[in-house]
Each structure stands twice: as C-alpha cells, then as structure tokens.
Specification:
By secondary structure, the chain is an alpha/beta fold. Helices cover 48% and strands 17% of the residues. The longest helix is centred in the middle third of the chain and has 19 residues, at 98-116.
Length: 170
C-alpha cells in the first residue's frame, strides 16, 4: 500500500492497466470486479497490513484462477510461510530493480494463464500483456492499455470507439 504510485507507474510502463488501492476496504470486491489475473500486495514496511491484504484477497484470487504476488522487505523473509498460507502464489523480496518487479508480474501472469487457461484472458479481450483492451457489453467504447493506446496513436485520450480502434490498427 505504501508504494502504490511507484508500482502503478511501473505496471503502466509495462503496458498493464493497474488498479491500485491505499486501503484494504473492499479489496476483494475490487479485485473480482476488475477481472484482473494478478493481484500484488506490497507488504514492504507494513507487514501486518500486507498479511491482512493477503488474507482479504487469497480466496478471491484462487476462485478466479489468478496469481497473488507479495512484496516483502528483506527482513521479513520469515513471513514467507504465512504469506503462502494466506494465498500468495509468488513473492519478491526487496531490494529489487524495476525490471525484476515487471518480470515477477509477468511470471505471475503466466501462472494465471496456465491455471485458468489462455481463454480466461481472451474472454476479457486481452491478447498480450503489453497491449490489451477492455470492452464492456453494450458499450461502443473500449479502454486501452497505455501500450496499445500508444500503438493506436490515442495515448491519453481515454476510452475510444471500438470502430475507431479497428480503423487505427488495421
């Protein structure tokens, strides 16, 4: 929770659309509603809050064939067993480089794809973690990941009409 903005920025740069929270309230419902394949709980410097986050998300992540990545401080390595018991599928111990965080999320995403099958992501409209889109039934607009928005030449414009996306990508 403490490094939310930094982690969100890294995820966006990697082409994902992160949904970040500073509070634990409603985390399980937000995860389920998001359709996300990976949840990241940052317990660095806030181990008790992190463990509470894992407890809150563990069942929802498992029920949705997702992955749960926990980030721990170097001195909290003894908490790995508890993190595992609360549902974590992956872990990363600080200090770590930005690229290591991105790779850890990619590993977690691959896990979710294998557990839930590739069709899990296809149902949500994702073809690639570096370029994804989200469409809601009944809507004429699509939300693009930052990477796909850049590729389509509409970075920073927000949702665009689906037909406009098709025209721009050919």
């Amino acid at each position: 929770f403490r490094h939310r903005d930094e982690l969100s920025r890294l995820a966006e740069q990697a082409g994902w659309q992160p949904i970040a929270a500073r509070r634990l309230d409603g985390a399980e419902a937000r995860f389920v509603a998001s359709g996300a394949a990976v949840a990241v709980v940052d317990a660095r410097g806030a181990l008790d809050d992190g463990m509470a986050g894992l407890r809150a998300l563990g069942d929802a992540v498992q029920a949705n064939a997702g992955a749960l990545l926990v980030l721990l401080s170097r001195g909290d390595g003894g908490a790995l067993e508890a993190a595992f018991e609360h549902g974590a599928t992956h872990f990363l111990v600080s200090p770590f480089a930005d690229a290591q965080f991105v790779h850890a999320v990619q590993f977690a995403l691959r896990h979710a794809e294998r557990v839930g099958g590739a069709e899990r992501l296809e149902r949500r409209g994702e073809t690639d973690a570096r370029g994804s889109w989200r469409w809601r039934p009944g809507s004429t607009d699509v939300e693009l990941s930052p990477a796909l928005a850049r590729k389509a030449g509409v970075a920073g414009e927000g949702p665009i009409p689906l037909m406009e996306l098709f025209r721009r990508l050919g």
